[in-house]
Amino acid sequence: MSKKKKVKQAGNMNESWLIPYADLLTLLLSLFIVLFASSQIDQKKFQEISRSFSASFTGGTGVLDFESPVEPKQLPSSSKQDHKHKSALDKRDKEELQNVKEKIDEYIVQNHLNGKLQTSLTEEGLAITILNDILFDSGSAEVRVKDRRLAKEISQLLVMNPPRNIIISGHTDNVPIHNAQFASNWELSVMRAVNFMKLLLENPKLDPRSFSAKGYGEFKPVASNDTPEGRMKNRRVEILILPHTKTSPYSLH
């Protein structure tokens, strides 16, 4: 009798709890699918799906009612600070070079050297252009004795604290050179730059490690070589004072 009763009770067990359990599993599966898909779509589509599922499952605000979990990329605060610091340094650097330019321009006016010396401030740095005709005789790389004083006075203008890297470059016109000392204008331009740099470095206040010299020959003209005036402009020595944020690839460091 007892055995029959147990069989009857087992047959009458209520299995209705399986239905909400299956619904819950389906809901969780749907949630994980949506979360996975949201990482593969843009933020706008994710928000649309969020609103749709929230309204369907809860009739209002639900677990999906939030911004995309993928936050937009932002520069680290340290990178922003570094960029801001670099901008401040660049600005201060340009102001310092502008002050040097004004000092040299004042020297040019006081010594009536307009047309012989010129200055220009560019992204590369502060350029001082000296026409070769007031430094060298034709075909020679030796600075004339009467013009060595000019080189010494310019050297005083290059004394800065802290020191800056400075490039001395020589340039010629395109007239072929005719002497046994130099085989090309290129060699002539290099030696003119070197000899002028050596005169500048007689100033003990200048650090030779900050200086370098190079020659371009006739290959970087600033005017046409078809006229005497243009050729005169192309025969020049240039002093380039670099910003602190730039290092000369020709530096002797």
Explain how this protein is built.
A 5-stranded mixed sheet has the order 1-2-5-3-4. The protein is elongated and about 120 Å long. The longest helix is centred in the middle third of the chain and has 34 residues, at 77-110. It is α+β, with helices and mostly antiparallel strands and 253 residues long. The termini are far apart. The protein contains 7 helices and 5 strands; from the N terminus they run ααααββαβαβαβ.
Q: How much β-strand is present in the residues?
A: 5-15%
- Average pLDDT number: 80
Q: Indicate the overall shape.
A: elongated
Query: In order across it, which strands form the biggest sheet?
Result: 1-2-5-3-4
Radius of gyration: 39 Å
Q: Which structural class do you get from the secondary structure elements?
A: alpha+beta
- Secondary structure: helix percent: 40-55%
Record field, number of beta strands: 5
Low-confidence stretches: 60-66, 249-253
Distance between the termini: 108 Å
Main β-sheet, in a few words? 5 strands, mixed
Task: Count the DSSP helices.
Answer: 7
Query: What is the string of helix and strand elements?
Result: HHHHEEHEHEHE
In terms of quaternary structure, the protein is single chain
